[in-house]
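Input set for joint prediction.
Command: fold jointly, output tokens.
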Amino acid sequence: MAIMAVAALFHARFPIFLRRSVPSPSYPSSVTYYRRTVISDGFSTRLRSIIRYSSSDAGGEGGSGNSDAGGVYDSGTVVSEVQSPNYLKFTDEELMKQCRFETFRVSGPGGQHRNKRDSAVRIKHLPTGIVAQAVEDRSQHKNRASALNRLRTLLAIKVRNKVDLAAYSPPPELLQILPPKSTIRTSSGSQIGPNNAKFVPGMQALLDVISASDGSIADSAKVLGLSTGGLSRLILSHDGLRMAVNSMRADKGMKPLK
Amino acid sequence: MIRIFPSLRFTSLLSAAKPLCSVACSSSPVREPPQRASFAEAKSAPASNSLSITPKSPLFLRTPSHATPLSEVWKWHDWAKDLASSVEVSSSNSEYSLDSAILLRELKWLIEDSIVDDQLVIHKREIANDSESVKLRASLEELYDLWRQRIEKRRPFQYVVGCEHWRDLVLCVEEGVLIPRPETELIVDMVEELVTRDDWFKNGVWADLGTGSGAIAIGVAKVLGGRGRVIATDLSPVAIAVAGNNVQRYSLQGMIEVREGSWFEPLKDVEGKLVGLVSNPPYIPSDDIPGLQAEVGRHEPKLALDGGIDGTDSLIQLCHGASRMLKRGGFFAFETNGEKQSKMIVDYMTSDHQNSFSDLKIVSDFAGIGRFVTGFRL
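tokens >
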């Protein structure tokens, strides 16, 4: 492998040039520039490193349809926090500020010398250490968007918030992913399905409930005003959700849902 | 062996006085003959009585007129996968040899671009009925041929499908036009950063020299957000045709003007009036050309790659022009071969053009290579 992975060392800083008109008697239109350096973890993340590495290092894309589940279980550990901020409520921009792009440097001169379709993006969410990557899209732009979406799914799956079941009041993002049959649904709005980006925050809240119920589907179903079968169907509708519930149940010595 | 592209051979006979409009107006999606024909002898080019160059239609824009039984498509898919998996990595320079994993990804994209119901072919094989048929945008025969060209002739994937995904754009490309590189996306990012901070740059005239497919010009025009103008120049008539077509596909004719000619030559009317100047000129030293990756060296236009003995011939010209063409306070960004060349250019600009520029900077690409030289006209 001729590829050297020089990860995470690329702290390029991009200067922002500000143009300022300086009133001056001799040069009425004179212009001066001064430079400001923006720390790379800030707003200008887009300008910085975008990693690339050989596709063989990136792992297979897996021929299966659900690419969202890709890499979900790479780093294993579930983050458990007493009360972490709800990262899923952050905008893309805010989330990006908490992330570091990791650069894998490909040997060789790059630029016009090279035509290889192996552009990949890998982002690390610093507060949780969760890493998401994307390599399957055709442009850096799309890979970046895919990696960020994947990060959101991973955050939903791995970050658990403590829930007090006795005084539980379900958040709206959870209500909207529940089937209309649920007795706790307040509005008659249509159910948000697993392919919708809005499913992800609801999934996180759902996992919080199941976690607080120690993996019991029957207990969770009661809290959510659903039948056990109804909740099972909801869980099985999303690969990442199903795997997260099953690993939770495995920890408690319970049988997986199928 | 160096391939001479029929289109280039053909266009060299053309009168340089071809009106720009003849290029920009060729909007109708002309259905072209199979790619193979384009590799045939230029002599037989049917369009030789026309003075305009019609850009090729990329696969994804063609009409899905080829109904083909699924079983036949699967047979092709299996064959293509086997061919992709069988490439051997030469141990000497794996960076420049074919890579099965990348080829398999490209095959998926080829299917996306050429088959309307591509999911049926890639993922749903077990549930589909093999007596069904799918609509292809090219005949199966052509798809066999295209994939063979990709692997046996090392034809760049982007020429095979006729497009490149760059930033949030899908740009048509064909032989005779440089395929825009991911590194170059950063030029547009830099411009975006600049114009969001200072409106002065939004309202002025920008120029993209050696525009090729028009990538930078289109990217810049989009970040200017409807104000300002971009003039895109290129020496190659094929590039002019392709760039004009791409500009039109993004409905930016009102903002981008494509002009044919060498570097600053078509820009006499805007001398000293530019607020921004960007370019990805040829910068590879001539001696490096024979050793290039096959996809690049055998297929992409030398005109867009070869930068002379030390690779800086065009860059030096751009430096000269920048001092003449830019307004006071105007910004420039040029792509270079890397650290060494970037330093040469900065040195040149500080010694030979002292008092012309300020804030000269070398900006790194995503691989950490000092790829761009940027600065401002004093």
